[in-house]
Amino acid sequence: MNDHQHASEKHERHGNALQRLRARLRVLYHGHSREALRFQFAVLIVDLAIIAFFIATPLLRGEPAFLWFDYSVAALLALDLTARALATSDLMRWARQLPVIIDVFILLTLLMPTWLVNLGFLRILRLWTISRTGFIWRPLRKRNLSHLREPIQAVINLLVFLFVVTGFVYTFFARRDNSIEGYIDALYFTVATVTTTGFGDITLPGTWGKLTSIVVMIVGISLFVRLAQSIFRPNKVRFPCPQCGLQRHDQDAVHCKACGYLLNIPDDTD
User: Fold this and answer.
1) pTM for the whole structure
2) Does residue 55 lie within any of the structural domains?
3) Which Pfam families match (predicted)?
4) Fewer CB within 10 Å of terminal CB in the chain, N or C?
């Protein structure tokens, strides 16, 4: 009986410790205190360093220390995913989110760099996944700069697309065509194609090369249009109208332009 009580108390202590850890992580990842904001800023800096590593990976792959860096980044990403999982209140819902699924896939490419070497260019999607987390936008809200979120997100989407395409072209077309000899050539081709400049000095060979160029041009133009819209159209806030569902309104709107419903848009100046 005493052994059973001792085991039960030990299990309870471990359970309480886990609950305290989860509550602590929840505050750090989702809180608004100075300590939480400092933690979130530190996480963002680490994430940006990881993304810089992903961009430089094609140039570093031949270095002796590459695998050491690769597995170190894998450990950091695994630690971040574990902490986020503990911080969430609904694990199954969190695990089904697209940014989480992408991060797990990126982790697999880091843990198996030899087997998944041809998919390593997708690691830059980490930049997109961190842009979907709310805490990186909180500094904008605190400084009443929420209107900058949409153009910044559009820039991030464009950058992610550029580097994904560059990695794809470098992985599957470099050394098969004399015009693409390295990563910079692949980046040059991507930018020239997306902007429809089309200098013609670097082209992708064969039918698949032509199809790739077509997709890059179509998607690239769409992203540029989206970026231009977010920069030049009047600043609006995203606040769904309870009556008609209109999503965007002027920052000082009192009534919905579509249906005239009386709005109560929160003020971000505090």
Assistant:
1) 0.70
2) yes
3) Ion_trans_2
4) N
Residue 105 falls within a domain, yes or no?
yes
Residues 167, 162: Cα–Cα separation, whole Å: 9
Indicate whether 143 belongs to any domain. no
pLDDT in tens, 204-262: 877 888 888 888 888 888 887 777 777 766 566 677 777 777 777 666 676 777 677 77
Tokens 């690691």 identify what position? 123
In a domain, 168, yes or no: no
From CA 30, how far away is CA 136, in angstroms rounded?
11
Domain extent, residue 100, equals 1-135
* Number of structural domains found in the chain: 1
What is the SS3 assignment for 80-108? HHHHHHHHCCCHHHHHCCHHHHHHHHHHH
The Cα–Cα gap between 118 and 190 comes to 18
In sequence order, the β-bridge partners of residue 177 are 174
